[in-house]
Amino acid sequence: MKEPKPWVIPALEWGPLILFFAVFMLNRGGDVSLWGRDYSPLVFATLLFIPAILAATLIRWRLTGTLAPMQIATLVLVVVFGGLSVWLNDPRFFKIKPTIIYLLFAGLLGFSLVTRRNWLGMILSEALPMDAEGWRKLTLRMAMMFAALALANEIVWRTMSETAWVYFKTFGMPFLIFAFLMANAGLFKAHALPAAEKDTDG
């Protein structure tokens, strides 16, 4: 299978989210009338976000032949909770979607720790070769991070404006995840497998 160009995968990941943000910002001055119904800017943006992320996921699958379990879970929850927001014309369902996603991820990672199963390593070991102790530490830290993100999402959407929540979802959450990964660079290096260290040096 032909390897996609380097910019394609980031475009597929960020494209639907940027579309969601742009549509919301362009229409936040008032409701949008469509098919005889008035939709709030957030619900209208969600209406366009769902087919966009479906298309992006399908294209990614066709290009790479694989989808990570987290990508599949995210897609299902976007369709379910986004669909409920559009169907009931209630943005609250879409706002709680990140909370459900992050709690699900935190729960799965926590369960893998209790049962001593390296699920995270099974998914990421090819891109990030580490020893068992490194995966145990990273799994614990990621479970705590996802739980913290779920709590943060609840605080933001329940106490701040809708615009503030959209900014937080579009830019705040990805930045926090990126900052988390950068903060764990020392762990990746300390627990890298010898072969991975050799490849890096060579």
TrEMBL record:
It is found in: Cell inner membrane. Pfam families: IspA. Its main location: membrane. The keyword 4Fe-4S does not apply. It is a multi-pass membrane protein. Keywords: Cell inner membrane, Cell membrane, Membrane, Transmembrane, Transmembrane helix. InterPro entries: YciB. GO terms for cellular component: plasma membrane. The chain crosses the membrane at residues 7-27, 39-59, 66-88, 100-119, 140-160, 166-188. Belongs to the YciB family. HAMAP family: YciB. Plays a role in cell envelope biogenesis, maintenance of cell envelope integrity and membrane homeostasis. PANTHER family: INNER MEMBRANE-SPANNING PROTEIN YCIB, INTRACELLULAR SEPTATION PROTEIN A-RELATED. This is Inner membrane-spanning protein YciB. It comes from Paracoccus subflavus.
